[in-house]
Design goal:
Helices cover 47% and strands 25% of the residues. The chain is built from 5 helices and 4 strands, in the order βαβαβαβαα. The protein has helices at residues 17-31, 48-56, 77-96, 111-115, 120-133, and strands spanning 3-9, 35-42, 63-71, 100-109. Helix 1 runs parallel beside helix 5 (120-133) and helix 2 (48-56) packs parallel to helix 3. The longest helix is centred in the middle third of the chain and has 20 residues, at 77-96. Pfam families: DMRL_synthase.
Length: 134
């Protein structure tokens, strides 16, 4: 059984997208007989690499899935945040030799587009499980 760490970025200025992503992630874990041993919540997507690193260091965590949403704003800030989070998570995965999957949707999305992509929470968990089993 794969033991997962889950990082959830709480910032969601438009409502229930994060909760739907979390439900999708939980369903995917159950479907693949994986166990989420720890869920860490952080304020936003930018904050996810540190939490992912802490989970990836644990002996009881085989892989980490990260969930979040970055909605388009009035400036390029959404792109900066998403790029920094993606690079930070890639660095954690390579430095810890532990799969860390990117389930942060965005940037450049509207609220409706984000709501249509909440299944990506499950995709991030499924990818983490597959990588852990390699």
């Amino acid at each position: 059984m794969v033991q997962l760490g889950l990082v959830v970025a709480q910032y969601d200025k438009h409502g229930a997208v994060i909760e739907a992503m979390r439900q999708s992630a939980s369903a995917a874990a159950a479907d693949h007989d994986a166990d989420v041993v720890e869920t860490v919540t952080v304020p936003g997507a930018y904050d996810t690499p540190l939490a992912a690193d802490r989970l990836a260091r644990r002996e009881d965590v085989d892989a980490v899935a990260v969930l979040g949403v970055v909605i388009e704003g009035d400036t390029d800030h959404d792109q900066v945040i998403a790029d920094a989070a993606a690079q930070g998570l890639t660095d954690v995965s390579l430095e810890r030799d532990t799969p860390v999957t990117l389930g942060i949707i965005g940037p450049g999305m509207s609220k409706d587009e984000a709501e249509a992509r909440t299944h990506k929470g499950g995709s991030a968990v499924t990818s983490a499980i597959e990588l852990a089993n390699l």
